[in-house]
C-alpha cells in the first residue's frame, strides 16, 4: 500500500479514498451441519428468486431495482435524534423524521445513503439531493442520477450528472427536504472530506436575507463497512451482496443543528459534527476531489 501514501492524511493516518477490502464470507464452513443445511436452502431459494431478474436484466433498468422492492426489507434502520429519547422516538418515529423546509448535511460514503434517506424522510418524494461541484456550485440530482453518479463515475464530476441550481425561491424551499452531500465526492467513511462548498457560495443559492435557511442539521448515515462505495463499482455486486448475504445495518443519527447566520464558520462545525464531534480525526483540507482524481488514476494502473 506504500504506493498510495500520498493520499493518506499525514496527521491522522487515515486513507479516505481506499476502497474496503471485502472479506470472503465463509458461511458454509463455520457452523454446525444443520445450520449449513438451512443456510444452503435459504441461499438456493434466493438464487432461484434471482433467475427471472437475470433473464430480464438486459431489458430492465438495474438501477431502478434499487428503488423497487429489492432493497426493502434488506436494510435495517437504526434511527436516533439528538435530544430525543428512544422511547419517545419509538412512539411516533415519523414525527422526528426529516422534514420539508430544512437543510440537512449528510456524510457521503455509500450509494445506500440516498436510499436510506427514502425511509427516514417524512415525505420521500420531496427529497432534493444536492452535491457541490469542484468549483463550489450546487447541483441537484434525482435519486437515479445520484446512484448513477456514485456508481459510475467514481463521483468526480457532478456537472455531467445533475442540473445546476442558481437560486432557490422561498416557495420551493418549504416544499422540499434539502439533503446536501457537502463533501462533493464519496469517501470510504473513515473520516469526513473537506466540504466543496463554503458559506458564501451557499448563501448565493439560499437567500438568507429572508432567513429561509437559517440552520443546518448534520445527519450521519453509517452503513456496514463492506457496503461503502468510494470508487463506485458494479450495482449488481452491491445488489447481490444485499440479497444473498446479510442485511445492511444503517445507523442514522440526526445531530444538533448549527445556526448559519450566527456562527462564523458554521460549516466547519457541521463537518466536525458529521465526524461525531471528533475534529482530530478529520482529514486535511487538501484531500478533496482533485486529490481523489489523482488517486483514482494511480489506483487504476
Ligand atoms: C415513500 O413514501 C410512500 C408514501 O408515504 C411509501 O408508501 C413508501 O414506502 C416510501 N418509500 C420508502 C422507500 O420508504
Ligand atoms: C467561496 O467559494 C467561492 C467560489 O469558489 C470563492 O470565490 C470564495 O472566495 C470562497 N469564499 C471563502 C470565504 O472561502
Ligand atoms: C448515467 O451517466 C452516464 C454518464 O454521465 C449517462 O450517459 C447516462 O445516461 C446516465 N444514466 C442514467 C440512467 O441517468
Ligand atoms: C466536468 O465535466 C464538464 C462537462 O463535461 C467539463 O466541462 C469539465 O471540464 C469537467 N471538469 C473536470 C474537472 O474534469
Ligand atoms: C408546495 O406544496 C403545496 C402543498 O403541497 C402546493 O399546493 C404548492 O403548489 C407547492 N408549491 C410549489 C411552488 O411547488
Ligand atoms: C458517516 O459518518 C460516521 C461518523 O463520522 C462514520 O462513522 C461513518 O463511517 C460515515 N459513513 C458511513 C457510510 O459509514
Ligand atoms: C452488517 O452489519 C450487521 C450488524 O453488524 C450484520 O448483522 C450484517 O450481517 C452486516 N451485513 C453485511 C452485508 O455485511
From TrEMBL:
UniProt keyword Membrane, yes or no: yes
Top-level division of the source organism's lineage: Eukaryota
Alphabetical keyword list: Membrane, Transmembrane, Transmembrane helix
Segments crossing the lipid bilayer: 33-60
Name the UniProt record assigns to this protein: Phospholipid/glycerol acyltransferase domain-containing protein
Organism expressing this protein natively: Maudiozyma saulgeensis
Amino acid at each position: 500500500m506504500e504506493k498510495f501514501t500520498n493520499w493518506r492524511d499525514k496527521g491522522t493516518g487515515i486513507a479516505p479514498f481506499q476502497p474496503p477490502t471485502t472479506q470472503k464470507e465463509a458461511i458454509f464452513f463455520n457452523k454446525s451441519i444443520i445450520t449449513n443445511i438451512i443456510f444452503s436452502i435459504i441461499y438456493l431459494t434466493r438464487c432461484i428468486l434471482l433467475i427471472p431478474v437475470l433473464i430480464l436484466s438486459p431489458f430492465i433498468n438495474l438501477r431502478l431495482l434499487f428503488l423497487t422492492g429489492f432493497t426493502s426489507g434488506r436494510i435495517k434502520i437504526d434511527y436516533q435524534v439528538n435530544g430525543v429519547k428512544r422511547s419517545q422516538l419509538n412512539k411516533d418515529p415519523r414525527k422526528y423524521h426529516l422534514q420539508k423546509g430544512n437543510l440537512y448535511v449528510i456524510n457521503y460514503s455509500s450509494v445506500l445513503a440516498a436510499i436510506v434517506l427514502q425511509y427516514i424522510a417524512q415525505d420521500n418524494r420531496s427529497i432534493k439531493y444536492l452535491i457541490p461541484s469542484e468549483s463550489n456550485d450546487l447541483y441537484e440530482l434525482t435519486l437515479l442520477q445520484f446512484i448513477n453518479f456514485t456508481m459510475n463515475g467514481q463521483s468526480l464530476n457532478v456537472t455531467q450528472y445533475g442540473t445546476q441550481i442558481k437560486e432557490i425561491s422561498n416557495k420551493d424551499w418549504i416544499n422540499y427536504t434539502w439533503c446536501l452531500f457537502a463533501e462533493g465526492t464519496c469517501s470510504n467513511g473513515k473520516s469526513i472530506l473537506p466540504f466543496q462548498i463554503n458559506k458564501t457560495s451557499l448563501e448565493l443559492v439560499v437567500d438568507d436575507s429572508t432567513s429561509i435557511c437559517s440552520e443546518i442539521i448534520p445527519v450521519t448515515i453509517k452503513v456496514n463497512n463492506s457496503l461503502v462505495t468510494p470508487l463506485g463499482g458494479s450495482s449488481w455486486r452491491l445488489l447481490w451482496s444485499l440479497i444473498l448475504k446479510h442485511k445492511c445495518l444503517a445507523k442514522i443519527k440526526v445531530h444538533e443543528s448549527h445556526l448559519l447566520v450566527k456562527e462564523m464558520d458554521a460549516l466547519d462545525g457541521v463537518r466536525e459534527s458529521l465526524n461525531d464531534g471528533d475534529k482530530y480525526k478529520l482529514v486535511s483540507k487538501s484531500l478533496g476531489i482533485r486529490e481523489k482524481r489523482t488517486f483514482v488514476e494511480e489506483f487504476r494502473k
